[in-house]
């Protein structure tokens, strides 16, 4: 089984393109598309398009209705995405109000039903990204006392994985088969069933249609009291829970997410073994990508045993500028300001002498002087040492933990 580095925080094609210039093998993830928005948006083609160089690329999809999820997933499959990832981990309060994202962890049977429905009708893999749990405080606000379950315990996490993977126990299967839709739903505020076809499918649970790969953000999600940003850093990390899952579910693959701030840390997590000797399928990196993206230039060397792309930092930046200019000619950048297109470049030279001046010059050239992207970039790069701009040195494997986000 291959070991993957998976990059999130790439919300748009132009952001993913520059990552692909730095690494040929990193698996890229799209922003989270919402099923109804994708189905009805007049800008859909621009939202879901991507450059062919971005493969392998996975589309994140959010929603709670299996029919709408399938309709949206088919659009993404037709566009050429390599897989669909059902997002059960987004901590946004707006997303929670829409009854998807991390809120779906309260309804594992519904998640299973979505997964099996997509698996039956798509030819690309369907995976699930989730948290290790959601807070009990939020759940207490939703339920009567006799329905209370600890939704942030390891046992409840196992129940979620067991059900969504289709590996439920005999007791799970019997209770599911005999329960009403309301009883099968743990979340009483989930959209009500309007017709028999809207409900959770009452057929025999079949493991072959369950999820076989979970990307676990090793923090619980506090749906009550924390913002989306705080939920990405405040709840403590429990990597050990993910390694326990490797032993408790030997036929399922797991990737880990959350708090990975250096390539050395990612390497350690991939090489660490569970008690039974199993290892993770992958490590998802988000914050390192936004804080110090040039570290991704060394991923192919350190994680895939292949040479890094031959482009220097200067050549990488200018290839990105050429890409943005071509997108503008094709009419794809009409929804993005030049400042937005600059953002992926802001931290390329982080912690390098002249980097702050470079960033400020590029920003002011665009926002104050209204210069085109190429001119603004060249103005900023003039403050970076030429040796740094044209450096093609490979990474040093003895300094893996130094390839990290700034403190």
UniProtKB/TrEMBL annotation:
Q: Where is the DUS-like FMN-binding domain?
A: 15-168, 210-370
Arranged from A to Z, the UniProt key words for this protein are: Flavoprotein, FMN, NADP, Oxidoreductase, RNA-binding, tRNA processing, tRNA-binding
Which GO MF terms does the UniProt record name?
flavin adenine dinucleotide binding; tRNA binding; tRNA dihydrouridine synthase activity
**What cofactor is needed?**
FMN
Which CDD domains does this one have?
DUS_like_FMN
UniProt cross-references to InterPro entries, sorted A to Z: Aldolase_TIM, DUS-like_FMN-bd, DusA, tRNA_hU_synthase_CS
Using the UniProt annotation, give all residue ranges assigned to the region (Disordered).
Answer: 174-196
Q: Which PANTHER family match?
A: FMN-LINKED OXIDOREDUCTASES SUPERFAMILY PROTEIN
This protein is called what? DUS-like FMN-binding domain-containing protein
Q: Give the species this sequence originates from.
A: Blastocystis hominis
């Amino acid at each position: 089984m291959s070991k993957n580095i998976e990059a999130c925080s790439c919300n748009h094609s132009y952001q993913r393109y520059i990552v692909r210039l730095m690494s040929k093998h990193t698996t890229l993830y799209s922003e989270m598309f919402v099923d109804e928005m994708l189905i009805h948006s007049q800008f859909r083609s621009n939202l879901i398009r991507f450059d062919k160089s971005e493969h392998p690329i996975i589309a994140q999809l959010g929603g709670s209705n299996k029919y709408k999820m399938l309709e949206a997933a088919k659009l993404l499959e037709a566009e050429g995405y390599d897989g669909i990832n059902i997002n059960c981990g987004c901590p946004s309060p707006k997303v929670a109000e829409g009854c998807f994202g991390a809120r779906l962890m309260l309804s594992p049977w519904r998640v299973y039903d979505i997964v099996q429905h997509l698996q039956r009708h798509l030819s690309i893999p369907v995976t699930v990204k989730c948290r290790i749990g959601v807070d009990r405080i939020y759940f207490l606000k939703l339920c009567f006392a006799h329905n209370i379950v600890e939704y942030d315990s390891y046992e409840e996490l196992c129940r979620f994985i067991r059900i969504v993977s289709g590996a439920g126990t005999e007791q799970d299967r019997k209770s599911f088969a005999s329960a009403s839709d309301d009883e099968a739903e743990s979340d009483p505020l989930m959209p009500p069933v309007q017709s028999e076809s809207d409900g959770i499918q009452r057929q025999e649970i079949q493991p072959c249609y369950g999820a076989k790969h979970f990307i676990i953000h090793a923090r619980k999600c506090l749906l009550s009291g924390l913002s989306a940003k705080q939920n990405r850093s405040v709840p403590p990390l429990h990597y050990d829970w993910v390694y326990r899952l490797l032993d408790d579910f030997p036929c399922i693959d797991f990737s880990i997410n959350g708090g990975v701030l250096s390539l050395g840390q990612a390497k350690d997590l991939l090489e660490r073994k569970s008690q039974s000797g199993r290892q993770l399928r992958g490590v998802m990196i988000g914050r390192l990508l936004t804080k110090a993206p040039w570290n991704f230039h060394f991923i192919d060397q350190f994680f895939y045993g292949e040479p890094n792309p031959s482009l220097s930092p200067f050549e990488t930046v200018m290839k990105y500028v050429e890409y943005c200019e071509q997108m503008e000619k094709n009419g794809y950048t009409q929804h993005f300001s030049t400042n937005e297109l600059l953002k992926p470049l802001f931290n390329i030279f982080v912690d390098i002498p002249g980097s702050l001046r470079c960033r400020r010059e590029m920003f002011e050239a665009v926002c104050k002087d209204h210069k085109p992207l190429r001119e603004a970039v060249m103005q900023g790069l003039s403050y970076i040492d030429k040796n740094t701009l044209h450096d093609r040195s490979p990474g040093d494997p003895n300094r893996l933990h130094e390839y990290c986000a700034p403190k």
